[in-house]
Specification:
Helices cover about 30% and strands about 25% of the residues. By secondary structure, it is an alpha/beta fold. Among the domains are: about 110 residues, ATPase, nucleotide binding domain (Nucleotidyltransferase, domain 5, 2-Layer Sandwich); about 130 residues, Rossmann fold (3-Layer(aba) Sandwich), CATH 3.40.50; about 110 residues, 2-Layer Sandwich (Dna Ligase, domain 1); about 70 residues, no CATH class. The strands form 9 sheets. Strands 13, 14, 15, 20, 23, 24, 29, 32, 35 and 36 form a 10-stranded mixed β-sheet that branches. Strands 3-2-1-4-11-12 form a 6-stranded mixed β-sheet, sandwiched between helices. A hairpin with a 4-residue loop joins strand 30 and strand 31. Helix 1 crosses helix 7 and helix 11 crosses helix 12. One of its GO terms (molecular function) is 5-oxoprolinase (ATP-hydrolyzing) activity. This is N-methylhydantoinase A. It comes from Stappia indica. InterPro entries: ACX-like_C, Hydant_A_N, Hydantoinase_A, Oxoprolinase-like.
Amino acid sequence: MTKDGKQIRVGADIGGTFTDVAMEVGDAMHSAKVLTNYTAPEQGIVDGVRLVAERAGIALDQIDTLIHGTTLATNALIERRGARTAFITTKGFRDVIEMRTENRFEQYDLDIVLPAPLVPRNERFVLDERIDAHGNVLKEIDEAELDALVERVLAGGFESIAVGLIHSYVNGAHERRIRDALLARRPDLFVSISSEVSPQMREFQRFNTVCANAYVKPLMASYLRRLTDSLKAAGTTCPVFMIHSGGGIISVESAIEFPVRLLESGPAGGAIFAAHIARQHGLERVLSYDMGGTTAKICLIDNQVPKTAKTFEVARTYRFKKGSGMPISIPVIEMVEIGAGGGSIAAVDAMRQIRVGPHSAGSEPGPACYGRGGDKPTVTDADLLLGKLAADGFAGGSMTLDTGAATGAIERDLARPLDIDGTTAAFGLCEVVDENMSNAARMHAVENGMELADYTMIAFGGAAPLHAGRLCEKLGISELLVPPGAGVGSAIGFLRAPFGFESVRSAFLRLSAFDAGKVNAVLKELAEEATAFVRSGAPDAVPSLECTAYMRYAGQGWEVPVAVDVRDYAAGEVDVFRKGFEEVYEQLFGRLIDKLDIEIVSWSLRASSEAYPAPRVPRVEAKRRLEAAATRQMFEARTAGFVTATVVARTELAPGDCIAGPAVITENETTTIITDGQEAIFQADGCLLVRSKA
């Protein structure tokens, strides 16, 4: 805290290329980008915090709170470099995580290859016990068999153990008994049980989730402890919190216990950032576009709330097709993610077409233009050759880009194989990236029944403002907002997130046999669990509660989410649930089905502290049109040639200033490109409003 009582809060986001740090001192924001340290990721955060504190004139021991998000757990799953893990399950269910479900992600591929499970078959163990779907014990655990199983598992030298028994989402007593037996012999062993990690029906998804939690738990525990120790050694005394996949803040202790909740923590911060800007500007339909060094993410934000889901997939192996990845059953902000970032590597395939990603040059060695040993052409190299980036002043002046190296990489790997010039190859590379992103956005919108022409795009991340204008042209989006601090948007989003946690539970109930007592008991249990997580980080918070019941017609395979009030229900209030389901179902499918019973399959309850204030910002129209004081040559996609573009520093703009494209607006952490068909108007809150000249 400053001497005049201003709170000092820091958000830190580790990306594939850069580690972003944002420091909020009262109402003032300071930021920095440093290259991600792959050997010791925590050192990148310490270096970034030191740098931004120096810029803000703040001592490290004055920082009040640090909130962190990372893709470290996601990368460990994708690259299969987690802990050696054993899986214990009910006899007869050993192969569930290998057999998966009956769905085929490529219907007509006779040689389809399913992703390998995290735990190989010889490291999966069974116990002859059984609990039924109502939670009744059909077969007790035999203590002698359990002792022998524990002996075998411990003799295997595993770092982490996952326990997933059939129907444990209703009754987790047997899972807890196994955990107690393991820890009694080895108190330092990492043990994850599915009844706590993901207490939801559908055993494949639940078993896979608890295996993923156990697989990354030692890695994340080690990393988070090193991080807290390194920050203390550097001089900070503040508590450290983590952002989770659902967009809330939890304690480091909770994150160590449930690291699977961190899988999409970095991208979740970006969606929160975009939702905050949407509230400030009164926007009801927003397309969030986050492009960093490794990936690009798109999220639909309706009524100023990011779209959420209770399951998602990581590490899709077959052309990003749904079903080809690793399903994780946890609450998450739903988004589309593709391997298209500033560091994404381009190559020419067997059909003489340019392909970009999913592999990235990252920060080590980085794009060719970084001069750190990289020799593959990347999106950043193409942006440099096309005049979108300047060689000087990159990353706040901390780097000078090597134009010659970028030219050499693109000409060698793209231009010569295709028998074209380097500029055309660079243009083709960028067009492929932009087209891939626009296709992903269209598909995401279609899957959700939305028309993107009605949306406003909010772009952030180091690379997004470079490509957002062209992406809007492809998608028919007429307005784009580039917020202040866009280059470190996810880190700022961490500072806008509430303390929050979403508890999930499968508790099957048919409306024809409605049991108000069971409903009230489930809601109470969920509310107590979620509230406890919130108060572990914000002891004085009075959390708001939001509940969703996942419902379906009897006989259907999947459910629709129905919002329900968190309160005690009376025995005769079954129609409250029936009416809520029918409204949602008819909105989604256009008609109801007569004479079918309705089922509640599972529940989700979110507790969160008070939302960060977002005062409305009135729109500012153009007051002064800026003339070109400085210019440079930039490639314009619509005319397929170089044009003279106005160059303006964002810090020199005042509300109402209007810049007609083609133009380049520079700042420390990113660059915004205004195409020939667009103009930008500087808003009162520092946002750039980019819209079509038409």
